[in-house]
Amino acid sequence: MSEEELIKACIAGNQRACRELYELHKNWLYAICLRYHQNQSDAQDSLQESFILIYKNLSSYEGKGSFKGWMRMITVRCILASFRKKKKMAEIDIGNIQDPVNLDFLQDIDLDELKFLIDKLPPGRKQVFMAHAVDGFSHKEIAEMLDVSEGTSKSQFFHARRELRQALENNIVIAKKIQHER
User: Whole domain around residue 105: which residue ranges?
Assistant: First the structure.
């Protein structure tokens, strides 16, 4: 069954097609959920909620752009909405931050180390960092999804970058000290 036929079958209420759609896409969408959540249970909840929204809104997919991109957008919006509902986002607004967005310091880091450091960020900062730096949402879109001001989104991103940079610098200093002592 082609992607278009699968979508049409799901819209028509074909349960087998809905199951096939789920099986085809559950793993990579779950990986997105895990990037945002601290535990598997919350990630699984977001995955389930995402698929409910995907199924409900299939008829609104117009075939413009990739279907995977459309599902990814719904999933990220669902995840961020769950954070908004739980009021995990701290409202910090320090106005317009003029610091340029420079993530070059992240280029030379091991992926597992980067994931570890991102997971250590406070929830609000992690959400904004993931949505902006990883998933490419604008601060305006993030602000709408989290029901915060655009300045808050920028502030959270600024602080997340600063904390990641400090954590990396501290680890490098510690590693250099250990090598020097040997």
Answer: 92-182
Q: How far apart, in whole angstroms, are the C-alpha atoms of residue 162 and residue 59?
A: 42
H runs (alpha helix) in the chain: 3-11, 15-36, 40-57, 67-86, 111-119, 123-129, 139-146, 150-181
Residue 79 in contact with residue 36, Cβ under 8 Å?
yes
Q: Is the pLDDT of residue 59 over 60?
A: yes
- Residue 98 φ/ψ, nearest 5 degrees: -95, -5
- Regarding whether 128 and 106 lie in a shared domain, the answer is yes
What's the CATH code of the domain at 124? Answer: 1.10.10.10
Last residue of a domain, one of 49, 68, 86: 86
Of residues 11 and 145, which shows the higher confidence score? 11
Confidence of residue 21 (pLDDT cuts 50, 70, 90): very high
State the pLDDT confidence band at 181, using cuts at 50, 70 and 90: low
Domain boundary among 86, 106, 122: 86
Indicate the residue type of 63.
G
Q: From CA 171, how far away is CA 177, in angstroms rounded?
A: 10
User: How far is CA 54 from each of CA 138, 156, 165, rounded to the nearest angstrom?
Assistant: 22, 29, 37
